[in-house]
Amino acid sequence: xxxxxxxxxxxxxxxxxxxxxxxxxxxxxxxxxxxxxxxxxxxxxxxxxxxxxxxxxxxxxxxxxxxxxxxxxxxxxxxxxxxxxxxxxxxxxxxxxxxxxxxxxxxxxxxxxxxxxxxxxxxxxxxxxxxxxxxxxxxxxxxxxxxxxxxxxxxxxxxxxxxxxxxxxxxxxxxxxxxxxxxxxxxxxxxxxxxxxxxxxxxxxxxxxxxxxxxxxxxxxxxxxxxxxxxxxxxxxxxxxxxxxxxxxxxxxxxxxxxxxxxxxxxxxxxxxxxxxxxxxxxxxxxxxxxxxxxxxxxxxxxxxxxxxxxxxxxxxxxxxxxxxxxxxxxxxxxxxxxxxxxxxxxxxxxxxxxxxxxxxxxxxxxxxxxxxxxxxxxxxxxxxxxxxxxxxxxxx
Length: 397
Ligand SMILES: *Cc1c(COP(=O)(O)O)cnc(C)c1O
Fold this sequence. Notes:
The chain has 397 residues and is an alpha/beta fold.
């Protein structure tokens, strides 16, 4: 890897193949993939519907640019709008790009209706919205931004879950509130009861755009096609990426008609919405946008979460958070979390660490119940080993 810039701290495994929930390397090792390319391999590895759609589309036409009509783009957009409460879709190629587009859209909407003073975007502590300047400025994690200033002006941050602070920090100058319904990178933090509805009401009062960043929670991850559908309110704009392409790079911004403020020349993308990416989205939605499939995601998520909660009862200070197949086990202790993470890795189970003390699980949505149980066995073993190493007499039975 010497020629690759060292932007990632990589683990020393080299997957070269995959099937379902499993990754393989060339040395004959196999790994149970409970992180799924960071909530991205929604259909697992080598899913015939996704692979077939990509192969077939590659044979026909990979790219032609948005200079022309792209029928398969219209089809993918229609599939998304029919499955949600939104009317319009803008396609791009990643999560960060979808956030950029959403910020531009919201500022344009505010500008058109109220003028340039209404341009602030309110976001929340521990959020993650991406790495480009708009998305990074929106990301309220100082450590990610420290060396890269100045940030985009007009970004305001309130503590996640603190509605009162959000009310204090917003006003007529607020163009948009951008929030993850469940924070992924920040540690799998679930919005407290009433918080999202409070933001909905606040946006209505301020005539500000409510944007849900569902890059991680979308495409079926929580057992709903989009997490908002399990919350009982509708944001004005929603961003989607990660699992939406099942591993193929895609991004999308979904907007209600009255918020679809971007017109010709306002925004664009060379690759965004190209036929190959649209074939991937259509294949993923073809599997995931199905009530039985989503019910099964919720069911498997319940098995996983219930078992982890039972385990957490025996670990002082531990907590389990998340929904569907986005679950975090917070050990409340970085050493314990790392030790369990390393045990899982040694035993061939892939998870990852977020927020320092939390192990995140985001397996393929197609994971089997048997694989969930296998993962739990390994995880329990890791907790037992770590606990007995830390406090021998308090070993978990
Ligand atoms: C991963 C993530 C992003 C950034 O997506 P990229 O595809 O890495 O640019 C933005 N928002 C949320 C909530 C994410 O989880």
